[in-house]
Amino acid sequence: MHRRSTVIWMTGMSGSGKSTISNLLKKKLEIDGYSVSIIDGDSVRDNDNEKLGFGFDDVRINNTRIAHMCNNERVKYDIVIVPVISPYDIIRKEVRSVLQPNFHLIYLKTDILSLKARDPKGLYAAADRGEINDLIGYSDVNRYDEPHSAELVVSTESSVSLQKSYIYILNYINKII
Asked: What are the backbone dihedrals phi and psi of residue 54, each rounded to the nearest 5 degrees, phi first?
């Protein structure tokens, strides 16, 4: 019987470092001999024919799709890493129930000032100019529920380098695989 591979579900607000850290992890874990797949929430959303928004129902649809993609990837890979905002606690619990066992929620915790300073997609600046009114965790429209059941909480604030955060997460993954 094939063992179920490990799913690393990395949540955090836009700009918290999810994709950057995921790519660093993939590179290092592959060097160490593991097969690794990344299912990036942005890529899934961008490649979907049905253009989903960022409200609760659309996030649920997107996160459920990603969870099912993870189950398909588990057959082929040792580790599946999912960098996705995944802002709602109830939806993260649903995803956990689909992907257990070997599901690990990692929360990249970042303060708003660090996110605005980093702002790789220009979303916070656009929200401040009034061009975006539904930025998750920043607007009044779409909240971000801070995870209370994460296996690991990692600060990616400006005072902590992404390299340090990456090493911290890598050490955690090496303990669980």
From this structure: -120, 10
